[in-house]
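User: Please check C-alpha cell order:
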Amino acid sequence: MKKYYKFILFLKLTPLLIVLIGEGIFRFLSKTDPDEIRYKQIHCLYDFSEIRLCPNRNESFIRKDGKIWDIQTNDFGERILSNNIESTNLWLIGDSMAMGYGLPTNETPSFYLKSKYKIDVRLLAVDAIGTNGILRILKDSLKFQKSEKHPEKIYWIWNPSDFIDDEREKVGIKRYLYPIHYLLVRNSYFYRFLLPTPPANKYTSYGNPILYPKSHITYSNLRKFFSDPLVPKEKLTILFSWGMAGDGHPDTKDLNYEMAKEFFKEQDVKTIDLRTKTLELYRKKKPVYIPSDGHPGPALAELFADAIAKHFLNLP
C-alpha cells in the first residue's frame, strides 16, 4: 500500500516538476518579452471571455516595418490622446480599425478629428472584438454615463473581419476555459512554447474572399445590436472602406461590403461608403494600409476622420 501511494505521488509530482523546469528554462532563454507578448499584457480579461484594454497604460511597440507606435489608456481602458479629459458629443466605436491598431497616436482617426477639426472623441474600441463585444462596450458606456452626457452622434468603423471575430466568440464550455488559457498565454513562457498563439490583428485577406450569407452569425448579431432598446440607432452611422488584400492592393473582390451595405439599409442604419475615395488615395500612392498588416494607415485614418467631421459638423 505504501508503494502504491508513492507511485501516485510520483505521477502527480513529475508533470509539475517538468512544467516548473520548462518554465524556468524558457524564462532564462527569453531575456525580454517580445512585442507580441507585451502587447497582450496591455489587455485585461473582462466578464470571462472578453478582452479589453487595461486601464492606465502607456506603452510603445515596434511594427514589422520597424516603425514605433504607442498606445495610452485612461481609467476606463479607453485609448486616449492625452490625460486631459474632455467631455465629448462624438463617440467612435469598433474594433482595431477604430482603435488605430499599429498607428502612433498622432496618426489615429481620433487625433485627426482633434487636430484638424477641434472635435474631441470618446473612443470605445478594442482590437479583435466582435459585434457582441462592441455592443456590450457601448451599452456599458451608456449605462454609466448621465443622459445629459450621452453623445450626439456615434460612428462605427466597420469591417468584414467581424464575420471571423464573431465566429470565434467564446460560448458554452469555452467561455469558462478561456480565462485559464488567457492567463497562461500572458504569463507562462512554457505554455506559449507548447501552444503557440496564431498571429492576430491582421486584416490582410488571402485568396478569394468568402461571401457570407445573411444567415451568418454576424448578421444575427447585427440585428440584435440594432434592435437593442439601449442603442440609440438614430445617432449611429457606420463607415466602411476597402480592406487590404494579400497582394497589398485594396480588396475590391470582397463582395461582403456590398451585401453588408444593403443589410444596413434594410435595418434603416445610416452609412458612409469610403471605398471610392480609398481607391483614389491608393492610386496616388498614399499610405492607405500599414505594410504587411492590412490595418488602416495614416491616409485611411485621416479619410475616416474627414468623413466623420464632415457628417458631424454638417459640412458641404
In short: Strands lie at 43-46, 50-53, 58-62, 68-72, 90-94, 121-125, 153-157, 236-240, 270-273. The first strand starts at residue 43 and ends at 46. The two ends are 87 Å apart (CA to CA). Residues 200-204 have pLDDT under 50 and may be disordered.
